[in-house]
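Subject: Interface between my chains keeps coming out wrong

I've been trying for a while to get a sensible model of this assembly. When I model each chain on its own everything looks fine, but I need the whole thing in one frame so I can look at the contacts. Pasting all components below, labels as-is. Any help appreciated, I'm running out of ideas.
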Amino acid sequence: MNDMRYEAPDTIDGAVALLAGGRGEVRALAGGTDLLVQLRAEMIAPELVVDLKRIPELRSIAAEDGGFRVGAAVSGAELGEHPGVKALWPGVVEAVELIGSTQIQGRASLGGNLCNASPAADSVPAMIAARAVARVAGPAGTREVPVEEIAIGPGKTSLAKGEIVVSVLLPARPARSGDAYLRFIPRTEMDIAVVGAGVSLTLDESGVCSAARVALGAVAALAMLVPEAAAALVGTTLDEAALERLAAAASGACRPIDDKRGTKEYRIKVAGVLARRAALIAAERAGRS
Amino acid sequence: MAKIHVSTTINGDAVEFLCEPEETLLDVLRDGLGLTGSKEGCSSGDCGACSVLLDGRLVCACLVMGAELGGCEVETIEAMAHGDVLHPLQSKFIEHAALQCGVCTPGILVAAKALLDKNPDPSETEVRYWLAGNLCRCTGYDKIVRAVLDAAADMRGS
Ligand SMILES: Cc1cc2nc3c(=O)[nH]c(=O)nc-3n(C[C@H](O)[C@H](O)[C@H](O)COP(=O)(O)OP(=O)(O)OC[C@H]3O[C@@H](n4cnc5c(N)ncnc54)[C@H](O)[C@@H]3O)c2cc1C
Ligand code: FES
Ligand code: FES
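Reply #2:
Try treating it as a single job with all components included. I did that and got this:
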């Protein structure tokens, strides 16, 4: 750690060139709320830290094709103040706003939450449910990657050396759509999710669910999409039987660990309960009467 | 390793300093610049004792690298009182005995001021959520919350 270098380029190409050219361990820096904790704990000892916050594309939120492109280093506080994103994807915004305290919100980013690759990262199930796509820039050019393909294991990503997430596209959505994210923690604030559940759905004119995506966090090595849970909703009015099937499918998909925050059995049970509650909130936001 | 030269603004004054890449904003303030009002409780973002404003946003100084500060504006607890004239929050903390050992107090004052600047009339619940990242091991929080609500009422002139 003694000979760590710090660079703050102002272009994507500059950041990619620095990260690709680093000889030893290199790290991108967004809000630093994971990175500085890991440095301090000596979990990582990078030779080079590349601060991404001076790159305009990583700091802006722009409307795009009816959705929003959110810069990977935009802070939770900035995202929460954006009325457009909040109106279109309230579930994603509420998930980001659950990250840490007011102080953490001042810095923590969507890109950092995604790339830190914690199975319990709060924004990730909500982004997966939202069909969000990450724009990844690297030495070989730019590629578009569904957010569920960024983390490949706890603390591990599919990003190659020199690659960074530039932004995340939260896409346009049909009328009568809504999303929601709920997490369960032992306290009311400042804790790590025992289970997180994100649901995004669309209703047709008669109130029947025509499309749904359900994603769970903290119940397996990766946040994951649960297609069986979504299938339980499609074609229904979210009646009791459909919600029962949703909860059973969500619980059935869990491959959790036991830890001080919750046992396996508990997490499996809570995943079903949260998926069900999140689906009802999403439906209400979609205009269900 | 060469030190990094940083030009920044702290409490309205232009400041230049040299720092190592591994030094945090909290290290720079306390050890480099002698601004010891910001406290170090945990150095992991959990306690809020190091709360400062960075470009107008409430952050933990222990989770910011000193090297990041080029061109930024930092505001610390040292900017809160004007000479001997205390900020209403500071007066109310004394009046309500909202502190014992005082280690959490600068961070809580900075955080509470950030809240009142944004929302002059917060509910008790809003105060408690806003301050959830500021830990106090002495007071049990109740007096802190009362002091903030009372200061807010005073500042609104009611
Ligand atoms: C007190 C506290 C409470 C917390 N509470 C929560 C919580 O409730 N829920 C939760 O999910 N998390 C929580 N966290 C963890 C953390 O705040 C989040 O994961 C946050 O979103 C990380 O974002 P960041 O911008 O600070 O990332 P950084 O720390 O800057 O980066 C995190 C990792 O991602 C990499 N990275 C960052 N940006 C990019 C990019 N654009 N491209 C490629 N790689 C990148 C970095 O190299 C690093 O490895 C908490 C942390 C603290 C300290
Ligand atoms: S010292 Fe920074 S949050 Fe505790
Ligand atoms: S007064 Fe001692 S920690 Fe708050």
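Reply #3:
Confirming on my end. Residues B 40-43, 45-50, 60, 62 surround FE2/S2 (inorganic) cluster (ligand 2) (CB under 6 Å).
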